[in-house]
Design a protein that fits this description.
binds adenosine monophosphate; binds magnesium ion; globular; 269 residues; alpha/beta; 5 strands
Length: 269
């Protein structure tokens, strides 16, 4: 079965994260040439991205969300390596600046949407405004609860404007998160990655699960589907995400434009 179908959340599904196994590997094992497959997907992504750029009629937006240490940065580092920096832009959304906070929550997001011909990667996204904001009650419930529909309308607008949207929830277990945070504490090369926030947010794990379940239940649409990617095993996370991107670009099937001049009349010598 195509990964695209296997991990996609159907519109209006009532998602319970407990029903999804973060250790799932869809029948693959690591020895199963997983790395070779990943390399092939990366190469294929680069070819299709080049055609998307040449065509310049449509765009692809990849949204990455997940608990702390779920592997958002790792996915960018290991899966997006073949993309062309000239036509691809990754944006990390942090705590809003004072200028951003003085606008509607989609203002900063809209500015980062890829133009026709481009691939955009969101490391965190508009969904933080119904995740961290909901968990910490940074705005009243009446404000955040209206945002699910606002996000759906925004994504529908993007989609009608030629942006294909893929949203990946990187699903790790609470135990796997603990192991990764401990590793960040132990490994001098990873010390920099750990923050007070990671430890504080871990205590709110169950609240985040509830918030993510609302996102996945209310905002997986035909025009902007969510995928729940089993992410305890990094090699499988990379394989699944790269595979879904390739399947999607192949379905989009971007075409090189016809030459704008009569080639038979051109003499290069
Ligand atoms: P990191 O991705 O580890 O660099 O951390 C970025 C931090 O910014 C996370 O703690 C997010 O929860 C936080 N963040 C991102 N977007 C928002 C937002 N709209 N409101 C409040 N905090 C946010
Ligand atoms: Mg972090």
């Amino acid at each position: 079965m195509k990964m695209n179908k296997r991990f996609r959340v159907p519109p209006h599904a009532r998602v319970r994260l407990g029903d999804f196994d973060p250790d799932d590997t869809a029948g693959f094992d690591k020895g199963d040439k997983a790395n070779e497959r990943l390399e092939k997907n990366i190469a294929r992504m680069a070819e299709l991205e080049y055609r998307l750029y040449a065509e310049s009629q449509r765009a692809l937006l990849i949204v990455l969300q997940g608990m702390d240490a779920a592997g958002k940065d790792g996915t960018v580092r290991h899966v997006m390596t073949g993309l062309n920096p000239q036509t691809c832009r990754a944006t990390s959304f942090k705590v809003p600046s004072s200028e951003e906070a003085a606008h509607d929550f989609l203002w900063r997001i809209h500015k980062a949407v890829p133009a026709h011909g481009e691939v955009g990667i969101f490391n965190r996204s508009q969904y933080e405004d119904v995740l961290v904001v909901r968990v910490h009650e940074l705005v009243p419930k009446s404000v955040w609860s209206a945002r699910y529909d606002q996000i759906n309308r925004f994504e529908e607008l993007m989609s009608e404007s030629g942006v294909t949207i893929l949203k990946f929830f990187l699903h790790i277990s609470k135990k796997e998160q603990l192991e990764r945070l401990e590793e960040r504490l132990k490994d001098p090369n990873r010390n920099w990655k750990i923050s007070d926030a990671d430890i504080k947010e871990r205590k709110r794990w169950d609240d985040y699960v509830t918030a993510y379940e609302a996102v996945l239940s209310r905002c997986s649409t035909s025009y902007a589907p969510w995928f729940v990617i089993p992410a305890n095993k990094k090699w499988f996370r990379n394989l699944a995400v790269s595979q879904i991107i390739v399947e999607t670009l192949e379905r989009m099937d971007p075409k090189f434009p016809k030459p704008s001049i009569d080639l038979s009349k051109i003499k290069v010598k």
